[in-house]
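Journal club prep — side note

Before the paper discussion, L.F. wants everyone to see what a predicted structure for a comparable chain looks like in token form. Sequence:
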Amino acid sequence: MVPGLALCVPSGYSYGAALLLLAALASAPVWWRRPAPRTAWWLTAAFSCMAALWLLDVGAAWGWGSMDRPVKYLLALPCIFYLMTFQPRAAWLWMGIAVGAVGSGLVGLYQTYVMGLPRANGFTNAIQYGNLSMLLAVMSGLLLVAQWRRWVLWQRLLLASAIALGVAGSVLSQSRGGWLALVLLLPACAWLLVRTTGQRRVYWGLCALFVAAAALSQVPAVELRVDEARQEMQTYQQHGDGRSSVGQRLAHWGLAWQMGWDRPLTGWGRAGYAEEKARRVAAGQAHPVVLEFGHAHNEILDLFAKRGLPGVLLLMAFYGIPLAMFWPTAQRIRDAQGKMDRESLSLCLVGVLLPLSYIGFGLTQVFLAHNSGNMFYLFMCPLVLAALHQRRARLGCPRPL
């Protein structure tokens, strides 16, 4: 349900998470007494540190809504230990990813061609929807390639449909950040597949994907958005016009960079960030467009301005710890006889995709400023980790480090 309903229904990313939390609370006397692997504690540390960081934003000026984000992070913690005790099978996760990508694309097609919306949004922000739809499509592609021989015909067709419809959802959202993230994701995925499987024909598949992407760039809606981005960048560089989508991002980035270096150790805080922006706009030191948003349209720069270098380091740990936990080492992807286990490999690759994609998405959007971005990461990471431990246990292998 976590990936399967994420983009198909309003607040779809919450239903599976709520059930996991209820199950964790109901079974607390069981999992509380059982030792958890080190990876669970590392993930708990990453989530707890980010929760502490978000708690710094809590204040009377923002009301009870300021507690929303840190509470989500804290409520995810018992789910980690519940999942490490009652470990899910990867097959259900694969089905959820495929169904989620298919559902996302169908919602995008319905919203665009039946409802007549200019941009598909999948019941959330169009950028969030488009990026997560692309992520589900890439995950489906990895599953199709990594376990091709395992799948029967209907499963291959389902995963192929998931790729096509997930990409369609991204295209219909007209979100350019997801396509920018692909520049990071596709070469990394291809290199990891070749490195772990030794099958160099994966590179030919990557070439085919780039050709397909080039063909998609000729789709009128995509071509128009690319041309708009180019023109908006030129307009900002020549005239300083920050009213366009690209222009306002460049204005936010420049201001956040300056503000971060003004207070590199502490940052300005959430309230101080808003106040200082207003002061600089009034003094003619920043474009007025920066007042329209409460963030800097870049995950790292936003934290740099608000929480300084310590905030940036915590964000790097938030991404870096899962990346290290899922990195496909020989101990994580080989069975007791030393042979490659494709399902373990798939779990590692899907796990690596999560932080890598969020890094890519965060280049042009503060992805963690939205519920969809937080919830998907908070619950997919422990789900993939628990499924990996379950698979290694079934193979009679040591726990993955």
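L.F.'s comment for the group: The CA atoms of residues 9 and 241 lie 38 Å apart. Keep this in mind when we get to the figures.
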